[in-house]
Specification:
This protein has five helices and seven strands; from the N terminus they run E-H-E-E-H-E-H-E-H-E-E-H. The chain is an alpha+beta fold.
Length: 171
Amino acid sequence: MKFITDPLNSSHYRKEFTCGKIILDNYLKTQVSQDIKRKLSACFVLLSDNQVVIGYYTLSNASIQRQILPTEIIKKLPPSYTNLPATLLGRLAVDKNYFGKKLGELLLIDALKRSYLVSIESIASMAIIVDPIDDDAANFYKKYGFIELTDSKKMFLPMQTIVSLFKDLPL
């Protein structure tokens, strides 16, 4: 089970990280450690050879309200569930110095793989949820099959879709 990222720790250098989105830059520099301590999110980082953070993403548990899912998905679910278990991919960012190298895609795949493994090994999750920060982020996720949720800017990718990505790979 090989991942391209490591859990964030104090030996990772993140002071100079900049992706061009102040909210994502500041989160990594000032808030993420507190969120990790409070168990609000887990942060995984892509590192350069000298332990500099060049990309990151966060994961946490979440739920999706049944009524905002597409009808074709609702029909397949037991009616007793009003909130369904999901995984929140809360943030995903790549340092500007590494734009154009497809690292965002690598981080997304890494996040999907982690989420898939957790869903089959320990904690059920029927989808990955994202809440795109802007239209660029929304277009990025659309390109990888994420579906817009009704009455929300949030998007999701069913775990069944993710299963099909990894089912034949050695994990």
